[in-house]
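Reviewers asked in the last cycle whether our approach scales beyond single polypeptides. To address this, we selected a multi-component target totalling 1088 residues and predicted its structure end to end. The input consisted of the following lines:
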Amino acid sequence: MATIISNRRVAEGIYVMHAKGRFEAKAGQFFMVRGWENYPLLSRPLSVYDQDEQGVKFLYKVAGEGTERLARMKAGDEVTLLGPLGNGFPAVHGRTALVGGGIGIAPLYYTARQLEQADLYLGFSAEVYEEHEFRSLRHPVEIDLGGIVLDRVDFDAYDTIFVCGPEPMLRAAQMKSAMSSGRANVYVSLENRMACGIGACLVCSVGCENGRKKACSDGPVFRAEEVVLA
Amino acid sequence: MATIISNRRVAEGIYVMHAKGRFEAKAGQFFMVRGWENYPLLSRPLSVYDQDEQGVKFLYKVAGEGTERLARMKAGDEVTLLGPLGNGFPAVHGRTALVGGGIGIAPLYYTARQLEQADLYLGFSAEVYEEHEFRSLRHPVEIDLGGIVLDRVDFDAYDTIFVCGPEPMLRAAQMKSAMSSGRANVYVSLENRMACGIGACLVCSVGCENGRKKACSDGPVFRAEEVVLA
Amino acid sequence: MIETTLDTVCRIGKVAFKNPVVMASGTFGFGKEYGKLYDLSKLGGISGKGVTLHPRPGNPGIRVYETPSGMLNSVGLENPGIRAFLDEECAFWERLDTVRIVNLGGGTVQDYVEGARLIDEDSTVREREGRQAVDMIELNISCPNVKAGGMAYGIKTSVAREVVREVRAATSLPLMVKLSPNAEDIADMAQMCEEEGAEAVSLINTLSGMKIDVRRRRSVFDNLYAGLSGPAVKPVALRMVHQVCKRVGIPVVGMGGISCAEDIIEFIMAGAEAVQVGTYNFVNWQAGAELAAGVERFMAEEGIRSLDEIRGIL
Amino acid sequence: MIETTLDTVCRIGKVAFKNPVVMASGTFGFGKEYGKLYDLSKLGGISGKGVTLHPRPGNPGIRVYETPSGMLNSVGLENPGIRAFLDEECAFWERLDTVRIVNLGGGTVQDYVEGARLIDEDSTVREREGRQAVDMIELNISCPNVKAGGMAYGIKTSVAREVVREVRAATSLPLMVKLSPNAEDIADMAQMCEEEGAEAVSLINTLSGMKIDVRRRRSVFDNLYAGLSGPAVKPVALRMVHQVCKRVGIPVVGMGGISCAEDIIEFIMAGAEAVQVGTYNFVNWQAGAELAAGVERFMAEEGIRSLDEIRGIL
Ligand SMILES: Cc1cc2nc3c(=O)[nH]c(=O)nc-3n(C[C@H](O)[C@H](O)[C@H](O)COP(=O)(O)OP(=O)(O)OC[C@H]3O[C@@H](n4cnc5c(N)ncnc54)[C@H](O)[C@@H]3O)c2cc1C
Ligand SMILES: Cc1cc2nc3c(=O)[nH]c(=O)nc-3n(C[C@H](O)[C@H](O)[C@H](O)COP(=O)(O)OP(=O)(O)OC[C@H]3O[C@@H](n4cnc5c(N)ncnc54)[C@H](O)[C@@H]3O)c2cc1C
Ligand SMILES: Cc1cc2nc3c(=O)[nH]c(=O)nc-3n(C[C@H](O)[C@H](O)[C@H](O)COP(=O)(O)O)c2cc1C
Ligand SMILES: Cc1cc2nc3c(=O)[nH]c(=O)nc-3n(C[C@H](O)[C@H](O)[C@H](O)COP(=O)(O)O)c2cc1C
Ligand code: FES
Ligand code: FES
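The resulting structure, written as structure tokens, was:
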């Protein structure tokens, strides 16, 4: 059980929760989160948005019953966290771009914070949030509102590109990667539905070039060319 | 939806909730209460503890998942109320005793408040609560802690006796009534499990001398000799 | 106005339901109680509390127990008997502007048949007098078969066939057979009903379930097992409705755990003509009216003008 | 100390489980992942992810969907094949101090039989070398029967009999047959298993269910139907376990929706020798250890010294 330090609304339906505890999460990892006992049944996977001496932060969007409950929680309430889980982003080299679409920006903040150089591309459909936080990292930040953020990224200009966002965006990134010079190592972070979160149940399984892998324990970050998106 | 005005703990596991709304509840009636959407499934029946210009009050004991959730609610939160339901206590005549065991005292307060004369007998197993409120009604109040409150009541001394409490207590009241002179009209308030609360589903049905009746809409108050307790 | 062109009418033979929302048997009494809370003419229909030839006291002991997202009930067909129903409740039904369905239970084939005949005769009289009260019979074959050692008719198709055939012969009212999910093969059962001339089938009745009181070391229910309903069973109900719709040509009325308009749409996409709503009445006493409105809202949002556009598309 | 005298041992033939808590197939991998989170020797046993003769990729598309107090899964027996299991996972099992059960799936009778034989042979070798890794086979007959048009073996007793008989003949390891709640008659099925020489039966596997995505107008699952598990199904599971326990003399391992120690006690009172816990692992990753402790706590509170005192008292 982790005590909630704060849980604040940062935009319409978007919240940041800060939960107490000493974790050693790496960028791109996630936790299985629940703020209730047996209902709803499954825990909700949330990426590490940030981590400090006090605990871990999640940036999340109210998408349904579970995140709605999380949004109603207050400082002092308890959440149950299992994690950090997954492999997170691999070590990078060279020029790096971090591309996030919507709530997919969540894992990029902590990633960017640890990189010496990174260009940030953040795409939003309706409202921009956490812009100030991202800008305070002193990396170049390009914000796209209502357009297609990937269009702003020149894949040939980077050695490493991380893409997080809805599945159509990940497919577009695959396509763009395939059609580029191939200089960049392109990675995507998957958000498959999960149950155990630790590699035991295979419900998050994803087709890969060499057979199936588990989005939770083999991912959630994969090389873009490696995964077959439905 | 009714807004909670206050919801305070008055003893270990015992709460008083005050919910806003204009109701015209009679003493002994109840509401079907829920402070959640679809889980848990059923609403919880709670007796009218008191009623004022602002709304209705419930005195309740945390017994399981539903009442636990109610106990966690705060002023400003919303509860859903269906009611007032049931027939409540009949009009009384003559000398009246109100006998409550444990949380069974809940419907007696509002009842006593409306009576010119009433002797109150309140039994508790572990801790006395709401004593001050009951005493402020200026009726004689006898408190029993850890004993058998019914033993204190001389059934032949009253014209009307209302008994509310756990089923063994109601059975004891039936027995005592049967063995008394029969001068008193003895009434018991049943707490059968309910689903609809309005007489449509028959899950609360109780065997009576003239066939079955519904605890919700024909009761919850019955003449003691009329009902067959399991 | 999009709303005015929405077609939510559902049909079973000549009976038209103004919308797909029918209140399920046993959860809605005969409608009087809920009728005090909202206007029943908003409903597609009502299936009344199950009635039997003779009055029945129902089961003793605890009759309801809540389970995760479901409930077990053991009412055991408490009812005043068909005659009392016809004499006392039907006058209220005469005045209802919604489809009125009598849910018929039984114990022996003879009871079922005689019950159907009584309802049929009463209906003939009322019709002649222009005050019809019953539009359809829903035959509940989940009742224990006295001859077959208490096993429900609803389990084996061969056992159920007799009761369906006999009841079919005993009434000219439209006949809908209500199937049990405890059936060995529910699609077979539905096919049998079609073969025997039923106008429709409805499913699912409650799933047989159990709850033990571990402190008292006995079943919570005097009757040992009880019937599970509510959102917990919806995935199973939907699957069975889909299977049955693939098998038969007659209309199917789907139910089991419905608690929002999208649930209703799921059943219709699975092939159901209409649906019934039971347990959710206890969660939300305005269920019927709200769900009927919710279906229209969904249709408007999705640009669906008639439910026929989506019925059975899976 | 009361605790030291508590007897929680459960037995299937010569196999002794230190407590009734066995992790259910498909929800616990082969134990490695949860083994990093807590000490697996606290468990009565583990049933591994279902394996088949040949490796299987499992089902495409979405594989899990949450339902009220339950979940639908459509993993579709993704597994590395029996050889890979024996070669790569079994070394880990050799070192486990808990009962290790291989869950065996198949497609044709021949696949089942050959699979059983491989496991049996491997077991003989390891036993000779004093490094046994498998204590029992759990035969999952819910797999689609290729010959019977994809209908699962688990539905009709007559169809299942062949596979049970052949697998029984193919191995001398203790054999437990895992029954499907979709069976036409689960008690019949269990009786058949007893007749064919199985040491035990386990039940229930998942209930066939459906979920439609109403906006996309298609099933959430590529495979159309999926398997329902979790607290939602517990009342049905408990009833079936009770029915089966009344029918057969061999031990019954009960499961379906268990999420607290009282749930386990219910299954034991219904007659189960032991239980399995599946979906609840996802709710509480320490489920196994906590439930095992919870059973002891319940026994101490209620003055029960051996589970035999309460087993099958209903
Ligand atoms: C590795 C990983 C990291 C994620 N990180 C974040 C994050 O940092 N911030 C954020 O807002 N969201 C994140 N998501 C998505 C988030 O998990 C879902 O939005 C959330 O589970 C929805 O739950 P709900 O109860 O609100 O919605 P419901 O629709 O009520 O959920 C019902 C069920 O579907 C599952 N589900 C629904 N949508 C998704 C989805 N998109 N991905 C996975 N499961 C889903 C839920 O877990 C639940 O079991 C992440 C997902 C994954 C897999
Ligand atoms: C007419 C009536 C008036 C009541 N008045 C009061 C009151 O004023 N104050 C108070 O504290 N309690 C009262 N009760 C009892 C109260 O309804 C239960 O304690 C409560 O429903 C328990 O719910 P739970 O979720 O906390 O417990 P759980 O045990 O989790 O409940 C599970 C299910 O069982 C039902 N249930 C459990 N115990 C009872 C019970 N004793 N009576 C009825 N249903 C039960 C619940 O409604 C629910 O459906 C009254 C009951 C009735 C029928
Ligand atoms: C309290 C209760 C009583 C019921 N009584 C009957 C009945 O008399 N006849 C019948 O055919 N079905 C009866 N049912 C079954 C329902 O009509 C319905 O088939 C079932 O509850 C599944 O739908 P639901 O999940 O929406 O409740 C009853 C259900 C409940 C909960
Ligand atoms: C994700 C998942 C995968 C499963 N895989 C298998 C399997 O491979 N073999 C099997 O016999 N049962 C399998 N099952 C069924 C479970 O072992 C168990 O019978 C069922 O889930 C009911 O128990 P529960 O409600 O405790 O989960 C699986 C269940 C789930 C949820
Ligand atoms: S969520 Fe269970 S294996 Fe990935
Ligand atoms: S609770 Fe439904 S009739 Fe009383």
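The CA atoms of residues 56 and 109 of chain D lie 17 Å apart. We regard this as preliminary and will revisit it once experimental data from Aim 1 are available.
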